[in-house]
Amino acid sequence: MKICFLTTGDIKDIATAKRALGMANPLSDLGYQVYILLQNSDENRKRVAMECDSRVTVHFFSKERTLAEILAKNTFLNQIRPDFLYLCGFVIRNIPFFYLKKTIILTEHSELQSGISDVKGMKRVFTLLLEYFSIIKSDGLLQASKYLQKEYRRRAKRIGVKRTDFYFPYAFNRDLYKPIEKEKLSESFQAYSATFNFVFLGTITKNYGAFTMLEAFQKLTERFDNIKLILLGKGRHYKEALEFIKINKLEDRVHLPGFVEEEDISDYFSIANAFISPMNDTVQDWARCPSKLYMYLPFQKPIISCKIGETFETLQEQGYYFSPGNKDSLADVMALIRESQHLFSFTHFELHSWQTRTLEFHKWIEQTFQQ
Predict the structure, then answer these.
(1) Do 161 and 198 belong to one domain?
(2) Residue-number span of the structural domain to which 250 is assigned
(3) Do 54 and 203 sit in the same domain of this protein?
(4) What is the pLDDT of residue 99?
(5) Is 102 exposed, middle or buried (0-12, 13-18, 19+ CB in 10 A)?
(6) Farthest CA pair distance, the chain
(7) 242 pLDDT exceeds 80?
């Protein structure tokens, strides 16, 4: 069977291609011919080299205007004529404007664009129309969160369309993300062993909790000396975060290295004593599936988050929770973890590897489309 993943953009900015790269080798192991369409960028090529072996056919397209990209993708799809076409996000650049009689179209939804507060007016109307069109255009829907599954079932019923769906959260690549023993870390990373380290990976923005973490940590420094906060990534409020650190004289306590290369993430995660994954009580966060959560799991350290959406769905009682957006609540949980001698870590992390996810996907394909 041939399956082709249709992606858009650079993986540094748009994470949906992680699904295609994570599933490529496991699908090949199951006998699929795997094709991936990726934008030609340095980061995309590097990630392919890290995650895909020679069995996977990757076709790189140039960054073009929308119509040119659509035409390039459709030309390739008509050449290979896949049995399954997996849309990594139902956006204009990914819509297959062609008709292949035997191709089954699968659409993944990993967030609810129409639920984002900044999406207003005619832009929201257009986004809603596109989301509803995805139900009509697809043969199967895959939702990365329970919230999305419920919402798209409600929408399909509203327009009188029956569509099979599959709850399909993100996962981690067990070949990429695995703990590194202290002795095998570089001296710069080994130096972190003298402190208790809280680590976050993601976009440095207010909306993603950057300043909630900074303000909570500032409060924590009044009680503890040997602690550090490491925020990995960049974002539109990165410079403001650096300014906050300078004003509050936290340069020796807070580390913001900026964008971290994929091959260095396991080093940072290995020196973590606890991870942080802030969530907001908004439609956007209830609907989305934070991919970094699954990257944290194999390191088996406490994860601090909120009882929102997929984070709570995954961690349940093995997580540590604070009130969304509340710096004092977060500081209390961080203090509890710093002082505790009996910490919970996620024990069933292997259930959330791409290998396991891919097997579940394969079984769904067999049961739904090959009877």
Answers:
(1) no
(2) 182-348
(3) no
(4) 58
(5) exposed
(6) 66
(7) yes
